[in-house]
Amino acid sequence: MTQQEWIERDFYADLGVPSTASAEDIKRAYRKLARQLHPDANPHDQAAGERFKAVSEAHAALSDPATRAEYDRTRQLYRSGAFRRAGTRSGAGGGGPAGGMGGFDLSDLFGGESSSFTSGEAGFGDVFGDLFRRSGTRTTASRPRRGSDVEAQTRLPFRQAVTGVVLPLQVSGPTVCTSCHGSGARPGTQPRRCPSCGGAGTLTRNQGGFGFSESCDDCRGTGVIVDSPCTDCQGTGVGHRTRTINVRIPPGVTDGQRIRLPAHGEPGLRGAPSGDLYVTVGVDPDPVFGRDGDDLTVTVPVGFAELALGTTISVPTLDGRVSVKIPAGTPSGRTFRLQGRGVPLRGRAPGDLRVTVQVAVPAGLNQRAIDALRAYEKAEKAAGFDPRTTWPGRR
Ligand SMILES: [Zn+2]
Ligand SMILES: [Zn+2]
């Protein structure tokens, strides 16, 4: 299996188990499938034979905890776009970091490009080459490679999300461990080739005329033995780098929106373009305003008398206040639309501010107010007003 196949293969899917499956689940799924698909049981079925091989390989990778951890971690890095290189994406508007499964080669990342990795001894490219080079393909390194895409998250107060903001953002991404230069071995020491499997990481065992590929126990499938692991990366060879960049969040982002900032990702190698930065923005709610698409909403409490008699109310806007005239006889719950006072959008007309009036009923009244309301009620009845006159639910 090439390293690319190794990464792109979904061993969990091969076994029909979720990636969270326990070791016991994996063993059970493998036994069941191996029985079903075994060549002895399907002597002339080529598809079953291929499935059997895939299931055996998946089991070999997932049954060993260290190999499984390595597989999970590498796939996660791969999916995060950490290992993307130039030419695997179509056009500038390409999809998210999960796209573009083609043309992946770890040696591109770690091999040969920096002299520190290949200073005559077992550099990281060699180590990982051994780890992944199960059937021996290795592309030449030192070509330009587009920078990795980077994911980041931030939270904004409601009003900054509406108006847009420039903010410093800390982004971190995987990088080669600076202490061991990616070898996973403590500085000054070298990983050595596993003597049991000769660096292949797997041992082949024949059973019923069929070759089983088994993970090597001595090196736990890595093909190398690290006698003293690097303490900074716990032997993984992968470090993290954090940098601060100023990003411009456009006006009108909504809670959970993912924004692409072209060329703000990791820098490219050898003149290749930078990757993109994707920022997922969480928006805190506002005590006054709500959002409905491009419109801002605000609910203003009013008195019954204000609606019945008409009034002018003062309403907050994003940048100040505005007076809104409420005509006499306005029903509670009516919404007034103030054009252009909503979300100030770039390149198109701003949204509206929708002002809803809602009667606030006092929880307690003093005697004078009670007397006045009783008098009002009487006058209302005398004038023939019934609040349910036009209500369809009236009997
Ligand atoms: Zn080995
Ligand atoms: Zn390290």
Topology (SSEs and partners):
Layout: H1 3-8, H2 11-15, H3 23-37, H4 46-62, H5 65-79, H6 106-110, H7 124-132, E1 150-156, H8 158-163, E2 165-176, E3 192-193, E4 202-207, E5 210-215, E6 224-225, E7 238-249, E8 257-261, E9 277-283, E10 290-292, E11 295-302, H9 304-309, E12 311-317, E13 320-326, E14 335-338, E15 353-359, H10 367-382
Parallel strand pairs: 1-9, 11-15
Antiparallel strand pairs: 2-7, 3-6, 4-5, 8-9, 10-11, 12-13, 14-15
Helix pairs in contact: 3-4
Protein name: Chaperone protein DnaJ
Keywords: Chaperone, Cytoplasm, DNA replication, Metal-binding, Repeat, Stress response, Zinc, Zinc-finger
Cofactor: Zn(2+)
Walkthrough of the structure:
With 395 residues, this protein is of the alpha+beta class. It folds into three domains: 3-91 and 99-142, DnaJ domain (Helix Hairpins, Orthogonal Bundle), CATH 1.10.287.110; 150-191 and 226-283, Urease metallochaperone UreE, N-terminal domain (HSP40/DNAj peptide-binding domain, Sandwich), CATH 2.60.260; 290-382, Sandwich (HSP40/DNAj peptide-binding domain), CATH 2.60.260. Helices cover 25% and strands 24% of the residues. It is built from ten helices and 15 strands. It has a four-stranded mixed beta sheet. Strands 1-9-8 form a three-stranded mixed beta sheet. Strands 2-7 form a two-stranded antiparallel ribbon. Helix 3 (23-37) runs antiparallel to helix 4. The longest helix is centred in the first third of the chain and has 17 residues, at 46-62. The structure holds zinc ion (2 copies). One zinc ion (ZN) binds next to loops.
